[in-house]
Amino acid sequence: MTRLELEHVTKRFDGPSGDIVAVNDLSLEVDDGDFLVLLGPSGCGKTTTLRMIGGLEEPTEGDVTFDGVRVNDVKARNRDVAMVFQDFALYPHMTVGENLGFGLKREDNGLAENEIDERVAEVAEMLEIGDLLDKKPSSLSGGQKQRVALGRAIVREPRLFLFDEPLANLDAQLRKTMRTEIDELQSRMGITSAYVTHNQEEAMTIADEIAILNDGTLQQHDTPARIFNSPNNLFVAQFVGSPDMNIFDGTMTEEGERYRVEFAGRSFHVPRDLFEDVAEDVSDVTIGFRPQDLFREASTEGRQGHAGPVIDSEIRVIEPLGTDAIVHAEIDEGTLTSTLTRFHEIDEGDAATFTIAPEHIYVFERDTERLIK
Ligand code: ATP
């Protein structure tokens, strides 16, 4: 097992119009056996970070350490990490069995031929690909190829697993099955892992901890629950959760022991102590609330919590998803999105009144986009 650390790591590339800062002063620690997911939009620096951990890319500044030992100068093949890629990267001329055993045969690990065969058989059984050992990759389905790629990583029992969008080429159903399997395998083997994805749902289900990157800069490194419930800033809040968070411009004024917050022509009060440190002169804010936290007044659904702002609207679009529906409603200042279970009670064109408990409303400083409540 290995404790992984990145210390002030920056990576610059030469671009056609100057420097590209792919990763900017990134510091992260991942404990022994933990599963880190690097999450963020396309181009935010996830793959570059993973490649620096694996030794395929050298940091321009800063250090990568395994168990406190700097590995910047250690070549990829000597880092004892196993990587699984989106395109599987299997050797086409080798059978599945040979693909699985190749890494072990190449290494100077003192294993005899029959011990390697045993290990390959064990892993093949674990991944339920025992009957494919004599086949060539070209005759396998996408899911089977990805199992072989996983098997090749597992068979070596490396210090670290590194995954780069390993499920991106699989269909939706298979992605779900495989992500559960990867999660189970990783916790059973207890091998420290870093996993790149831009898919927030995948990140939430598989990760012990998530690092969200934007423009090469770390936005938040936290448990999935804290990323969802206590986003550091507007970027994180908008990047996680589905459907997207409702966002409105608002203002905030002090009123004795509480703040009065206004948005979309409505106002509500929040006790001072619910706010983190607020700069003296903050008055322009951005208000956010999740579609799951918005309730229809007439309904008894979710009517716990304090009285919040009441918002009259007109239902525009109802998108049924089975047990619930995504409902878009129009107000003068924009559109409200909510997820409702009792959507059969309403129709497109109906007037509808929504409410939201103040404790479910996020307030961000408009300028810095930092969360203040
Ligand atoms: P994606 O999800 O699209 O794969 P990513 O978050 O993994 O994106 P990176 O591939 O790490 O992002 O790229 C980060 C930035 O660095 C991008 O602007 C990219 O164009 C740039 N970049 C990456 N590799 C190189 C390279 N070898 N040379 C020049 N620029 C590069």
Automatic annotation (TrEMBL):
The keyword rRNA processing does not apply. It is a peripheral membrane protein. One of its GO terms (cellular component) is ATP-binding cassette (ABC) transporter complex, substrate-binding subunit-containing. One of its GO terms (biological process) is carbohydrate transport. SUPFAM superfamilies: MOP-like, P-loop containing nucleoside triphosphate hydrolases. Residues 4-240 form the ABC transporter domain. SMART domains: AAA (SM00382). It is found in: Cell membrane. One of its GO terms (molecular function) is ABC-type transporter activity. It catalyses: D-xylose(out) + ATP + H2O = D-xylose(in) + ADP + phosphate + H(+); L-arabinose(out) + ATP + H2O = L-arabinose(in) + ADP + phosphate + H(+). Its EC number is 7.5.2.13. Keywords: ATP-binding, Nucleotide-binding, Transport. The complex is composed of two ATP-binding proteins (XacJ and XacK), two transmembrane proteins (XacH and XacI) and a solute-binding protein (XacG). Part of the ABC transporter complex XacGHIJK involved in the uptake of xylose and arabinose. Responsible for energy coupling to the transport system. Belongs to the ABC transporter superfamily. Carbohydrate uptake transporter-1 (CUT1) (TC 3.A.1.1) family. This is ABC-type D-xylose/L-arabinose transporter. The lineage of its organism: Archaea, Methanobacteriati, Methanobacteriota, Stenosarchaea group, Halobacteria.
